[in-house]
């Protein structure tokens, strides 16, 4: 009997730790002025992101060293029969007070089966966050969109900067964002 209690206590502890690890207060999309300024609505789900096994919780501050390599893990709620687009962007280029060059795309993948990011088509390779040293912290936003079908790479690869998110979503007939997350970096 004691063994069963200990077993269940350990199991519940791991479940709680896992739940804490993936929690993301999506309301921070509003308080950080992402909604309605950059996207129309708060995503219904969060994207669980890890850099070097450190989870990204919505609105956390991360370091350049931690984000130098692409995320080691990216997960979101997805339909097994659908394809998805994942985008990481910076809306604060060159500074949050004067974002005249926004958006800057740091990472773009299309045709992701379910949430298997490693099997998606890389449209733009990961470009690590690198805000100017004199700048206030930048927001780095991850958004996942559902695709209507397999997409052909028709992206202008010179358009990392001055990226128009609304036009991109509209032209590709994407639905969402279905999930999101973000962090700050100075």
TrEMBL record:
GO biological process, one term: regulation of Ras protein signal transduction
A Pfam family matched in the record: PBP
Top-level taxon of origin: Eukaryota
Record-linked InterPro entries: PEBP, PEBP-like_sf, PEBP_euk
Protein species of origin: Argiope bruennichi (Wasp spider)
Keyword Signal: yes
GO molecular function: peptidase inhibitor activity; phospholipid binding
Keywords carried by this UniProt record: Signal
UniProt-listed PANTHER family: PHOSPHATIDYLETHANOLAMINE-BINDING PROTEIN (PTHR11362:SF141)
Signal peptide, first to last residue: 1-19
UniProt keyword annotation of Signal present: yes
Protein name: OV-16 antigen like protein
